[in-house]
Amino acid sequence: MVGVDLAVNDVPIVGEPIAFGVGFIVLLFVCFSAVLRKYFVTLAHEGGHVLVAAVTLRPKITMELKDNGNGETGWARSAWFPNVLNWIVGYATPPLLGLAAAALIAIGNPWAVLLGAVVLSFALIPFSIKGLAFLVPTLVVLGVGYVLVSGSAELQAGVAVGIAWLLLIGGAADNLKFRGGKADAGYLARATIIFPTFVWELLWAFVSIVTLIVGGQLLLRPGYAIG
User: Which of 90, 114, 196, 200 has the smallest count of CB within 10 Å of its CB?
Assistant: First the structure.
């Protein structure tokens, strides 16, 4: 730690240069590194699938990340509702995690963001198949874990803010693309019949826009509170 009794939760973030500066860097990263940033956003996406599959006691859960940044989660199909719920949560998970991270930072607890990133990434490793699915969460565990244990308070705060912005901005970048190519939307359209693919894409876009606006306010406006 840097300074006497200075910890990550003591570093001012909301409305400070760290919140604006890291946000701008992440925006550039999302814009100019389409594949690399997708690995981490896709990790959160597939993590949402894995979590719901595990909670609903689906057997044979596997997670894969592909070279182009896309991913795939497999689980034994059974009841209609667990399958529909699982297909819904995938694209909603990155922006919602980003909002949760921004909320934790806003109440003065960026340390929890780092710990959450390590724990959730570590929990995905047993379900991973093939190289990238092991590599990406392992890198998150090692990188964020090192910052959590040995990084200065300022570095810890910066990484926590970076995680929040990456999930908010990266999630929005994925969900605002309307190309009809989202596999989850196709599954949902076939499973629900009355709701076409475009309706599900609009739902995820709405979630992304709301979380980006609210999360951005939490990070950039001191005293801002949800509701």
Answer: 196
Beta strands in 2-99 (DSSP E): 62-65, 71-74
Report how far residue 18's alpha carbon sits from residue 41's, in angstroms, rounded to the nearest whole number. Answer: 22
C-alpha to C-alpha distance for 161 and 139, rounded to whole angstroms: 18
**CA distance linking residue 63 with residue 129, whole number of Å:** 6
Task: Find the radius of gyration of the CA atoms of the chain.
Answer: 18
Q: Which residue has the tokens 């475009």?
A: 198
Return the amino acid letter for 69: G
17-71 residue pLDDT tens: 999 999 999 999 998 887 888 999 999 999 999 999 999 888 889 999 998 888 8
Please give the full DSSP string across 126-138, using - where no structure is assigned.
Answer: GGB-SHHHHHHHH
DSSP 195: S
The model's pTM is 0.92
Whose CA is closest to 127, among 56, 75, 163, 184?
75
